[in-house]
Amino acid sequence: MPLPKEPSKPATTLNEIPPISVPKTRKPARNTESAEIPSSAAKPPLVLASSNAPTAKAPETNRIRNIPKAASSKARTPATAPAGKPRRQVTLTGKKIFVLDTNVLMHDPMSLFRFEEHDVFLPLITLEELDNHKKGMSEVARHARQVSRSLDALMENIDDIEKGVALDRLGNVDALGRLLVQTTELAAELPKTLPVGKADNQILGVVFALSKLHPEREVALVSKDINMRIKARALGLLAEDYFNDQVLEDRDLLYSGIMELQSDFWEKNSKGIESWQQGGSTYYRVSGPAVKDMMVNQFVYCETGIPLIAQVLEVNGRTAVLKTLRDFSHNKNSVWGITARNREQNFALNLLMNPECDFVTLLGQAGTGKTLLALAAGLSQVLESKQYSEIIVTRATVPVGEDIGFLPGTEEEKMAPWMGAFEDNLEVLNKPDPSSGDWGRSATTDLIRTKIRIKSMNFMRGRTFINKFLIIDEAQNLSPKQMKTLITRAGPGTKVICLGNLAQIDTPYLTEGSSGLTYVVDRFKGWPHAGHITLQRGERSRLADFASDNL
Questions:
Q1: For 212, which DSSP code?
Q2: What is the tens place of the pLDDT at every residue in 81-131?
Q3: Which of 11, 148, 215, 217 has the most Cβ atoms closer than 10 angstroms to its Cβ?
């Protein structure tokens, strides 16, 4: 999450405030009774001190005001100065206190270290909820256990937890703040309509109490729960979503893999242009202002003036090398009987058929041909050119509606209902010569089946695929961590294809900005052995195209 940087001259923080001193009591005379020495000597200013704890008077310059219990319900309104005294100007430290909801920790176990110079506060009820979710083999349980281990390592050999624990103790150099854990009861006055025993309301009470205890600092709740944030804002508290897992804030900023050149491209970039022929393709070395926006393996085109359709092979400063493409829209260049029907499909087939491109991502709405193009390219390179030994297909098993329950059979039989899209595309691709009869069609089908393996993601960890054509379907429903687990299974000679539609995310807590598919598109752009294309135009049928545009 983008956060404001610490000012060049940081203001006084809570840890820098000198301890509050109590005046010494004068010793009594010998012939009198011993005077009572007050036992409630003021403690050093701790972040987690209760709002009802007594405090001794401190110098006016650095003293933190003790907010009375009947203070205004407005969370960020400082207390009124005593009568006859001028209002003291509160000095902001520039560092916020972020109170983390449990769902943030279970969504991203590294969220503790994502808040830069700001402090992170954990209520006790959050630790209780982590303990309740730590059992099991689900992703949430694994994250809960990882958070518990991180907290245990942070607090090891710490004498005074109340003062906070430096978040950079474990080597996270970007975490410059402190971890604060609730050690005392924080009194809060919430509306009576909110049940006291509910965990969400207890966290809201902690945020409310902290904002009153430290009016000079911004106290904000961070939660993935929308209703939790709504309730917090209704109480006048600051509430934010957890944005650090967002690769992009706006889907329109996502890299498309395509760039349209201006009509005057040749006039502005033709200075010192070079061109040559090699392997049936034409190469251009251009330099000019348009080069700064180009990336390796990006496709450029110009429809006005002198037409050009090319791929960027190299970018060096203000100089780029462009290569003309193979035209897969012509029947002589068909891939397993499939030809490109539009410009984006032609770009996609150039990536899928390029042996130097190890990782390809295809985005697009329903009917744009993602699965058909990937499967056709896989069959061509497995059965014809024999570049890969077999095709491995997997996908995220996230149901759209109610789950139908357990499925019988082996791993491939259990995955068969999820692979209906590939079955439909195989029917389109499996068109043998009519003269061969039913026997020839059956033989072709059996041959294709022997070269296609359907695998479940649940058993991918620890495996290594060598010389395989790996297709990951419905990749928009994968988290960045799951995507990393799958891609790192690739061994020598393996090509990985990720297909997905960001408008069809069915996984809770995943959005277009935090999806694993968005994550890999953004991280792999510009790598010489990876390419990405966003397919724009549907080619399934006129009915499907009209439904996609109007429903």
A1: H
A2: 334 433 333 233 458 999 999 999 988 888 999 898 899 999 999 999 999
A3: 217
